[in-house]
Write a structure and sequence with these properties.
Radius of gyration: 12 Å
Oligomer: single chain
Number of strands: 4
Structural class: alpha+beta
Shape: elongated
Helix content: 10-25%
Largest sheet: 2 strands, antiparallel
Strand content: 25-35%
């Protein structure tokens, strides 16, 4: 299965960039490539989504 990429919108500069869903675990810090602002992932939503898709759900 191809890796699932998620569009992330920077809350500071509104730049849209992609990150692999499997890398967006709870507590992961995502840094904007344009303004360097950081956001912390607060939930396991993305990694759980990947697990469900891998199971065929």
């Amino acid at each position: 299965m191809a890796e699932l990429a998620i569009d992330i919108t920077c809350p500071s500069c509104q730049t849209v960039f992609k990150k692999k869903a499997k890398d967006l675990k709870k507590g992961a810090v995502v840094k904007c490539p344009k303004c360097a602002d950081s956001t912390t992932i607060q939930d396991d939503y993305f990694t759980e989504m990947v697990k469900n898709l891998e199971k065929g759900g």
